[in-house]
Design a protein that fits this description.
Blueprint: H1 2-25, H2 34-52, H3 54-57, H4 62-66, H5 72-80, H6 82-92, H7 94-111
Helix pairs in contact: 1-2, 1-5, 2-6, 5-6, 5-7, 6-7
Length: 116
């Protein structure tokens, strides 16, 4: 039954990341609150700890975790707040930020199809 516990933990972390991204998207341009940066840092540490957990490593890989961040919304946050980009790059590497930007570019070209 440890698999369901691992899945619940992963789902909880995914939900926390999505909630964080929604909050960040809602912010006005300008100063990024240090509390939110700290929250993101904590989430990243939790995700890294999750990846190091022996029970988790059989079902989840680094790519599964990084995929959580690859959304058009995260690209918007990274674009508006360079501190977020720097934190993600220092935690996961520039490959992640590149993937986030690619996702956003693909999303932009798909959303321009308003031909009915």
């Amino acid at each position: 039954m440890s698999n369901s516990r691992v899945e619940e933990r992963f789902d909880s972390l995914v939900s926390q990341v999505h909630d964080w991204v929604e909050s960040a998207v809602a912010l006005d341009e300008g100063h990024f609150p240090s509390e939110m940066l700290s929250d993101l840092r904590d989430l990243i540490e939790e995700l890294k700890s999750f990846l190091e957990d022996e029970e988790s490593t059989t079902d989840y890989k680094r790519g599964d975790v990084l995929e959580i961040f690859v959304t058009p919304e995260m690209a918007e946050v990274m674009h508006r707040f360079p501190k977020v980009r720097r934190l993600l790059e220092s935690a996961w590497g520039s490959t992640l930020t590149d993937q986030i930007e690619e996702e956003a570019m693909g999303f932009e070209s798909d959303s321009d199809d308003d031909d009915d």
